[in-house]
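Researcher: Before we compare anything, I want clean individual predictions. No alignment, no superposition, just each chain on its own. First chain goes here; please echo the sequence and then give the structure tokens.
Model: Echoing the first chain and its structure:
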Amino acid sequence: MSKAEAKEAAAAQQNVFMRAIKLLGDIFVPIIPAIVASGLLLGIMNALNFMSSNGYIALDTDNFVYKIADLVSGTSFSFLQILIGYSAATAFGANPYLGAVIGIALTNLAASGTGVTGVFGILLCLASPVQYVVMFAVAAAVSFVISFALYKDEK
């Protein structure tokens, strides 16, 4: 019995709840390093900006290194739907590039810059940061569900 066959046999004996937890782990564990690195850099950049704006340090915001660090600091959070779509499609056994394309479409909806966006005809007026968070969470959930549908469609 190979290692893969042993894993499949052990997974078949688990209850539905344990299989769902394993699936969520398979989707989100590969994304954790990107989120952690982006979050740490985002915290450092916010601390530097706070200290600069309150006169504790002199910070040149036109510096090349500062601009690159500022750009990279929020990338994982800005494109979370793409990461989740790719990872979910991989975990489900679907084409990961189709999952990424679904994430891109949802990111495009969420970051349209018009202040009004929608998912499947549901319009959201993005006036507060809480509404942005809700929109990105909805888009990530939709990416997860569509990746599962792609998996079912390919089977």
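Researcher: Okay. Second chain, same rules.
Model: Second chain and its structure:
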Amino acid sequence: MIGLRLLDSSNNTISGNSVNTNRDGGIQIQYGNSNTITGNTANHNSNGISLYGSHNNLVSGNSAKNNNHKGINIYLSNNNTISGNIASNSLRGIALYNSNDNTISGNTIMNNNEMGIYIEQSKCNQMVVIVPFMTIRRSILMG
């Protein structure tokens, strides 16, 4: 079960929701563009917040804690902004797979079991690290 899912949907705002304890994921955007995901809590899910094949989205000011796999998962998704989120106590805090031209900035990423930020087969992603606003522990970047 997925807590909240947008499929083939664009120009939506998902804000102020608590989406917790879902087996297949908390908040999921699949093939959606120009959506805003802000001010949500997505804890104790498989993945907290996920973008699949989705472009030009804003993921900001969310809490993604204690998820089984990833706090925030970006897959085959380009030109997204991931900022001001908390991604902690999951396997991986923020993960990008085959995703290009994304901006990751101002997030708190800590106490993840495997790594803080994981990037695989992705290019031209921008990570803005402004200490103390972004905390990264146990991170690996793979190209």
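Researcher: What stands out in the second chain?
Model: The longest strand covers residues 2-7. Additionally, The two ends are 32 Å apart (CA to CA).
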